[in-house]
Amino acid sequence: MDTQPEETRVVVGLDGSPSSQAALRWAVRYADLVNGRVEAVGAWDVPGAASWSAPAVDVGFDREEAERSLVEEVRTVLGADGASRVHQRLVRGNPAHVLVDAAEGADLLVVGSRGRGGFRRALLGSVSQQVALHAPCPVTIIRPDSAAG
Predict the structure, then answer these.
(1) Rounded to 10 degrees, what is the CA torsion of 141, 142, 146, 149?
(2) pLDDT, mean of residues 5-17
(3) I need a labelling partner for 55 at 20 to 30 A (CA). Which of 1, 71, 105, 138 fits?
C-alpha cells in the first residue's frame, strides 16, 4: 500500500510587527525544509468587545482594508512569488484565541516574541505567552534578530 505522507501544516501569526514578520520568514524557511505549507493568520478585535468596560472605537474599521493590509504585509516580507505560496486569512477575535483555534490540526504554530502591543523590555508578549500555554501543537516563538541568516 503506497500512501503519501500528509503535508506539514505550519500556522504563523501576523500583526504587522517586525517580530511577526520575522516569524513569517522563519515559518516559510521551515516549511520549505519539511515540504510543508504555510497559513498566515491575522486577527482583529474590537476594543471593548469582550466586556462592557470600553466603548467600541472601530467606527472607521474596514475589514476589506485589513485583509488588503495582511496580503500586502505578506507580499512585502516574502515578495510576490513567496506570497503566492502562503494561504492568508483574517479572523475576528482575540489574537491568542484566534491563533490557538487556527492551530487545531497544525503541526506547528509560529509567532513573534512581541507584537504591536508589547512592552519594550518584555521578552515575550501576552499573545506568544498565551499560545505557548494553550496551543494544541508545538509552538515556536521567534525574536526578530533570531530570524536573520
Answers:
(1) 120
(2) 90
(3) 71
- Measured in whole angstroms, the distance separating CA 83 from the mean position of its chain's CA atoms is 14
Nearest partner of 130 among 87, 97, 86, 106, judged by Cα: 97
d(CA 125, CA 95): 12
CATH of the domain at 65: 3.40.50.620
pLDDT tens column, 82-139? 999 999 999 988 999 999 999 999 999 999 987 655 444 444 568 999 999 999 999 9
- Domain carrying residue 90: 8-45+59-147
34 in a structural domain: yes
Q: Using DSSP bridges, classify how beta strands 36-44 and 8-14 pair: parallel, antiparallel or unpaired.
A: parallel
Number of folded domains in the chain?
A: 1
> Are residues 12 and 103 in contact, defined by beta-carbon separation less than 8 angstroms?
no
Packing angle of the helix pair 63-83, 18-33 (nearest 10 deg): 40
